Amino acid sequence: MKKIYIYVFYAIFLSWLSIDQGYGQSRKYISQFSHFQNYYNPGLTGYEGSVARGFVRNQWVGFEGAPKTVFVSAEVDFAEFGQSADPALLGKNAAGLSILHDQYGPFQETEIIASYASRIRISASTNLRLGAGVNYNTVRLDGNRLNTEQSNDPTTGQYLNNFANMNVLDFNIGLAITHANYYVSYGAHNVNKGALSSGDVFMERKPTVSIIQAGFRQALSKDVAVITNFMYRSQEDLPDNTEFNVKALLMDKLWIGAGHRVNYANNFQLGFLLNKMSIGYVYETPMNRSYLLPNTTHEFMATFRLFKSNERTNPKEVLIW
Q: Which distant-in-sequence residues (6+ apart) come within 8 Å of 20 by Cβ?
């Protein structure tokens, strides 16, 4: 009986996240966030060169209506088309396109972001990067999958046994200071707060999201490198989100690591570097005191370098973030 009560509570909690607490569940969690910096900050587009990326995240495995996320993106650093000796440092412009599809409860959300970044060299080894992105967001509500609480809500209940679609056009901005071994950045999503929308309005305007990211990496020897990353997100209708991870890259072929989302979850990471491809896996478990579903989360990631291979160009280079 106790187990039944727990799952009823979790179902109510999931429903609360899904309805209009200002896009609560539309906060996208990516345990391997350090591999997808450009999604959070358009200023970091092209930071790791020209790459194609993707991940699949199955959250709270085994629970009906739990979030499932698929993401693909491509970034192009235009300096890699030329003969520059160091495109990452000497290049000027980069562009990217990202597509994220998220399904949670009765909602399906698709986000398309076109981003552009320009950089200015401010020292012998450091760049200032500025970026902007156009964010098109479409959300589909399946009224046949509303639970009791949602069907009694005056906003979502009107779509019971029906479908609704909402479209939002917004903008992202970002800036970053980058170096081969570290970066510090600030980005903002939904700077127009969802004011440009069409279709069925079943959610309130989207709040602006502020995102701070930072990382440091260092080669300790020819066979061992250490990488650390940090991210903080602030949104007025949700608790602040802080997470970090630490990885060790061994022989430029294998990485192992761990991460923590403060007050929410812990994760363990494993990945492999091939000639032009990186493959990563995360096993995530919620913390007992987080009041989230006890089910585990699985996340698979892959990146493909379009022009370069995963080989060091100098002894101090580290190949992943």
A: 155, 156, 202, 203, 204
CA-to-CA distance for 94 and 109, rounded, in angstroms?
Answer: 27
Please state, in angstroms and rounded to a whole number, the distance separating the CA atoms of residues 303 and 306. 10
End-to-end CA distance of the chain: 46
Query: Do residues 180 and 88 lie in contact, with contact meaning Cβ atoms separated by under 8 Å?
Result: yes
Instruction: Please indicate, yes or no, whether the overall pTM of this predicted structure exceeds 0.90.
Output: no
Q: Which domain holds residue 98?
A: 2-267+290-305
pLDDT at 227 over 50: yes
State pLDDT tens for residues 6-64.
343 344 344 334 333 433 346 889 999 999 999 999 999 999 999 999 999 998 766 66
Number of domains, the chain? 1
Domain presence at residue 201: yes
**CATH code, 51:** 2.40.160
